[in-house]
Specification:
The protein is of the alpha+beta class. The protein has helices at 2-34, 36-48, 63-83, 89-105, 109-123, 129-142, 146-149, 156-237, 239-265, 272-285, 302-322, 366-377, 405-417, and strands at residues 289-293, 327-336, 343-351, 381-386, 392-399. The protein has 13 helices and 5 strands. A 5-stranded mixed β-sheet has the order 1-2-3-5-4, with helices on one face. Strand 2 (327-336) and strand 3 (343-351) form a beta hairpin.
Length: 418
Amino acid sequence: MGGDVGGAHGTDGRYGFKLRAARLVILVTVLSGVSGVLVWPVVDVVARAELEDPAPWPPTLCLVPAVGAAALLCVIVWRRINARRNADPWLYWGSLGLVCATYALMANPVFALFTVGVWWGLAVFAAPTRRTARVTAALAVVTWLYLPLSPGEHSVALFAVMWVVAFFQALLMAGASAASLWLWDATTDAVEGQRARARLAVTEERLRFSRDMHDLLGHSLSALAVKSELAGRLLEASPERAAAEMAEVQALARTSLQQVRCAVSGYREVRLADEVESVTALVRAGRAEAVVTGLDGLDLPRDTQTLAAWVVRESVTNVLRHSDATRCRIGFTSTRDPGTGTETLVVEVANDRAGGASGDRTVFGNGLSGLSERVAAGGGSLSAARTGDGGFLVRAVLPVGRRTAETGETALAERGAR
């Protein structure tokens, strides 16, 4: 589990650096655009000093609303980048009102048009589409009021040309804003996706660990209970056999400890033949008959062997826990679909005395639920139900030659160990 968590932090750090770099680039780009709302009025003040017939109001008066418009525009853009939401109405309309006041107080119509164009190119994506359309149409009309309302005479033709130039400048500014916002959104989504995948990997590993602990400890503790109970019964009648059973209990305890260590380290490969031999010994120790069919000569890939071994282990653990079986049958059948050539392995574990009342509905406990998830992850299917003769049958259909999710995790663990 530590590897996944570390990978999550590593991913977050790597993409976090990219996110910060993208944030810096975008903020510099946007702030350089916002500065246009201030630059053009400053240029207008400098140019106004050279006019022979200056405007009746102080030249620097236009800088007052320009500073306010730029400040509110910075807030609007910042909230759009970080919160992905439209500007609050008071921010939007306040900034628009201030930029219109700046436009009215500027002496040079060219600089005034460029100021409005810069504002529009940055604020166009910070409002609902309908509001943006209305404001755009209003600005297209209002900007022409500069000619009849401003002092002095201005060339209509020159103003029309500059209006068109300012219009295209506003479109370029809007395109740069759209590209910056798209880059930011894409980068943020990518980082959030990586973080979500890292969290999912940690969650899946926790579920895997919980499932393995249940399967391993449930089987091992059931086996220890059966062996120790048998040794207790044999203590007076056959001390030698009781001592042998206790020696097996000790060996089983050591094996269980090793299995837990393997599960913690992520290495969970199980040999089918060894598992079948182990569970049949436990069934017979519990004074029940164990019959195994179809195992001899069965050549399976490691992936399928591991998954089949888990089916056998959990199914026999259920037999030992929840039944008074006198006979347990473990069967393996290899089949091939003649049409597709797909090969499958059918694993069946059946006993003759199911626990509980015969009419009880079959309910998957933690063990069978975890086993069902494991089999499904490997591309197979699992069913469990009472049989007509009062027994219980667990049946798993497993793909042969297909890499399962579990063994894929084992391979990752092996590579990490190397």
